[in-house]
Fold this protein.
Amino acid sequence: MNQILSTSTVGSLPKPSWLAQPETLWAPWRLEGDALAEGKQDALRVATKEQSDRGIDIISDGEQTRQHFVTTFIEHLDGVDFAKRETVRIRDRYDASVPTVVDAVSRAEPVFVNDAAFLRQQTDQPIKWALPGPMTMIDTLYDAHYSSREKLAWEFATILNQEARELEAAGVDIIQFDEPAFNVYFDEMKDWGIATLERAAEGLRAETAVHICYGYGIKANIDWKASLGAEWRQYEESFPLLQQSSIDTISLECHNSHVPVELIELLRGKKVMLGAIDVASEEIETAEEVADTIRDALRFVDADKLVPSTNCGMAPLPREVAFAKLSALSAGTRIVRDELSPA
């Protein structure tokens, strides 16, 4: 990972149509049993090759083996009843039917470690694995046991740390925690959100990252963004705290957003994973548009600490659009990389 401006994706990529329903969050599987297990591995192979072929430097699983970035992890935990469901407001944006915490939560066995080990076998490039962050996990559940968001978050942080340590042992180079809830629940984020995130990453030798965005390119998120005004300054709440935290890399949404790029200055000294690809539009960015976004960010972060990436996951996009956007990301990055290289 010594190359300047190494490219990465944030998380999800579209799944093959033979594996899951296209362009859908929580897409139902189209296979069962052994065929599903085999299909997931085939999809991991495809996602790895597509990223590599299109110039992505840090390879992720593209969430090919999971239906959703939060609930797939939770469904493997004890203490959560998926048959007992309640309707809750997700990040104060939309209602969803969610499972219920009915008892003490625990992890009986690793959740993603076998998948991560398989991904490690597919490439010699650095690999990244994303886990949901503690605050985002509790925002995707109904709690009928702890009656305390903070207490449940600390329990999840311990479980996540167990999983993260085993992912590291399986050969994962970067472990990313997804915390979009940090852009909504500012008081909780300050009181215990950062602390539980650090607990989830405690003791890791692998590089750590936290991804904070404004969500997938779905209507509920797009409508919310439209209500935020001419400047989206939510990062102003989290960045100063994260700059002082033990997390190595901070991921933010940037391209085609109303985030003032100068907010990146608040992260000085940290690695910055810069969202240079809009996941809320099917329009393919040009290489020069990507390059402009990177150049703009370089006024506030050193080149050796900048990781050009996507704004968020791309699961709801058509596959050909998503992969074309990856090509644009790498092409725009090459432009700037060449500009920074000595003649």
Remarks:
- Residues 33-340 form a domain with the TIM Barrel fold (CATH 3.20.20.210).
